[in-house]
Amino acid sequence: MKFSNANSKIDALKNVPELAHYLQGKRKVYSFDLLSGHSCPFAKNCLSKAVQLDTGKRKIKDGVDTEFRCFSASQEVQYTNVYNLRKGNFDALRKMQTSDDMAYAIAHAMPDNAGIVRIHVGGDFFNFKYFLAWCKVAIDNPQVLFYAYTKSLNFWLKAAKVDAIPENLVLTASRGGRLDHLIDEHNLRESVVVHSVDQAKELGLEIDHTDELAAIPSIRYKSFALLIHGTQPKGSEAADALKLLRKNNVKHSYSKKPKKVENKC
Ligand code: SF4
Prior knowledge:
Elements (H helix, E strand, L loop, with lengths): L3 E2 L2 H4 L16 E5 L15 E5 L5 E5 L8 H8 L1 H15 L4 H11 L4 E6 L8 H13 L4 E6 L2 H9 L7 E6 L6 H5 L4 E5 L2 H7 L8 H4 L8 E4 L9 H11 L18
Parallel strand pairs: 2-5, 5-6, 6-7, 7-8, 8-9
Antiparallel strand pairs: 1-2, 3-4
Helix pairs in contact: 2-3, 4-5
This protein binds iron/sulfur cluster (SF4).
């Protein structure tokens, strides 16, 4: 299993004063990723997967309810190294029987100089054991800040009920999943994908361009917006919104380099 170096968006966390102490002594930002869509049991509006064809090539497959395509799935189609790394992580974890085994494997793979870890630029918590594994890793590494977006809200709530989520694991409910009703019922802080700056304003949400709103522990209850980005299905509302953002020169994308994989969710 392997962690990934920070992409350009999450690497910008090193310029956030509130997070500076996590990165003292040359500690760095990393992510840990799984295959997008395949590992997201509660994805709905964002659901897309990279699927292997008999020819050895890959293509994107959207779900029946896809409204905005998962950007990290598109990148898994495009970049073989990204696909293989995430598949390797997902396959290894899926074979493990207990959350202790998973936690041990994750901790073993985590670079010694990790200061901030984004759990899943690609992927989600695919079962409760895996969710608990990350709680254990965070408890055992209190000097590291872990943060994640998730649509697996049932695992979050189940873990919270038994007080399993430590302070250094900051979570955001990612709206657009099959369990969205739990966001409202439990007043979870959320991120909402918006099509324009005006839409964010109407919702009264600040736009997070750098992942800092997702990561800073002291604002863990503040909801925020993410501007639509990536490659969207032709003819969809999301594709039209993206065109308009480009036309108006609104910042909505963070890198075009192959190895710098952008964020989804
Ligand atoms: S956006 Fe997130 S939850 Fe949705 S398919 Fe992609 S990785 Fe999974």
